[in-house]
């Protein structure tokens, strides 16, 4: 019996619907994201705490700085987009804040380990303390009002979402970069166990507060950052031009971090950890820059960021004349935005590899990061 075109069309539509429903059922549907880190994932905390990150930061995508150290979106922005969630509001932001789908505790200049040498006092321990305070106040307000106030209904995270949310951590670059300026390679390596211990304490505190789904980003190839290459011109380079000693330290840090995550998977019941090898993705951009359509991987887009006494977006007054730094016209050709942070294009390429699971252990897409099976 022949099948009519209409019937065939209906079958195709039904099969498509089944595929979509299957995809939905296989995804985690994280209701919120809580992020911790440094300027690589800061969506406005340093602006709220100290002073606005000025243009041309953020202008290419947001039309304003949006508190981000990049020309546009950061890796965390692409992650929330993929999860169909709004961009994360910084915890420290007091105007127009909305925490319904999570909050961002990352602050520019932060380290894992508290130290006076760090650029920011909002180290990882402080960020976790802020989260605990945030959660405590949220639950208290819900309990006081039975969650019926407009504020609870539209602005605050729902109590049940804390245990279902994705907790992302991307921090450690500053611990290594700052340490390298004052220590030898071996001395810096000797500090790694203490840094990892501080990281472990933070994770356990989050677990104690109900966090179950973790996405842990290792640190990138710090030795490839243009500002450090300029600061240490005599330091040995690897075959691609990066600072070999500093990348050696980053590799050792990542090794110890991964080993610790493996231990925590066994130690913390009902925990689901994804270890994300950001180092490999970022180093791939450096080593294959020309193939990927980038210019010199150690050049940067925001003029004046390095070598002229001014950071990206800052103002100086040489001989009484006011000068502003500005960005290049072909920003998509650059990996580095300002000598320290990545451009939106580079962030997107790294984010794509995080989201498809190709650099993750276990190798699951972010949307399926809650589907881990316990062995």
UniProtKB/TrEMBL annotation:
CDD domains: SGNH_plant_lipase_like (cd01837)
Keyword NADP: no
Superkingdom of this protein's organism: Eukaryota
InterPro entries: GDSL, SGNH_plant_lipase-like
Signal peptide start-end: 1-23
Swiss-Prot/TrEMBL keywords: Glycoprotein, Hydrolase, Signal
MF (Gene Ontology): hydrolase activity, acting on ester bonds
Keyword Zinc: no
Family: Belongs to the 'GDSL' lipolytic enzyme family.
Name of the featured protein: GDSL lipase/esterase
């Amino acid at each position: 019996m022949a099948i009519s075109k209409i019937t065939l069309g209906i079958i195709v539509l039904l099969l498509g619907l089944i595929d979509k429903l299957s995809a939905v059922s296989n995804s985690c549907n994280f209701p919120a994201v809580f992020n911790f880190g440094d300027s690589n994932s800061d969506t406005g905390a340093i602006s709220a705490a100290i002073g606005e990150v000025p243009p041309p930061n953020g202008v290419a995508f947001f039309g304003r700085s949006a508190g981000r150290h990049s020309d546009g979106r950061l890796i965390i922005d692409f992650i929330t987009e993929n999860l169909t969630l709004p961009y994360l509001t910084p915890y420290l932001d007091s105007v127009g804040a909305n925490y319904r789908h999570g909050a961002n505790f990352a602050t520019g200049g932060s380290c894992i380990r508290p130290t006076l040498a760090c650029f920011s006092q909002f180290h990882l321990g402080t960020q976790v303390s802020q989260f605990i305070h945030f959660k405590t106040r949220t639950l208290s307000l819900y309990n006081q009002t039975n969650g019926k106030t407009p504020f609870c209904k539209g602005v605050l995270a729902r109590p049940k979402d804390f245990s279902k949310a994705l907790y992302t951590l991307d921090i450690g670059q500053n611990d290594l970069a700052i340490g390298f300026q004052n220590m030898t390679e071996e001395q810096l390596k000797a500090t790694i166990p203490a840094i990892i211990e501080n990281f472990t304490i933070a994770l356990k505190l989050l677990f104690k507060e109900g966090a179950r789904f973790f996405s842990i980003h290792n640190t990138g190839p710090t030795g490839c950052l243009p500002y450090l290459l300029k600061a240490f011109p005599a330091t040995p380079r690897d075959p691609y031009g990066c600072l070999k000693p500093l990348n050696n330290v980053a590799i050792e840090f990542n090794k110890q971090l991964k080993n610790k995550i493996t231990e925590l998977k066994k130690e913390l019941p009902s925990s689901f950890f994804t270890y994300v090898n950001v180092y490999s993705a970022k180093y791939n951009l450096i080593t294959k820059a020309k193939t990927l359509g980038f210019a010199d991987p150690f050049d940067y887009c925001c003029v004046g960021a390095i070598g002229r006494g001014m950071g990206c977006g800052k103002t100086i007054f040489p001989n009484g004349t006011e000068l502003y730094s500005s960005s290049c016209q072909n920003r998509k050709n650059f990996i580095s935005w300002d000598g320290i942070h990545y451009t939106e294009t580079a962030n997107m390429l790294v984010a794509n590899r995080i989201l498809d699971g190709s650099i993750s252990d276990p190798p699951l897409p972010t949307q399926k990061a809650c589907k881990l099976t316990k062995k």
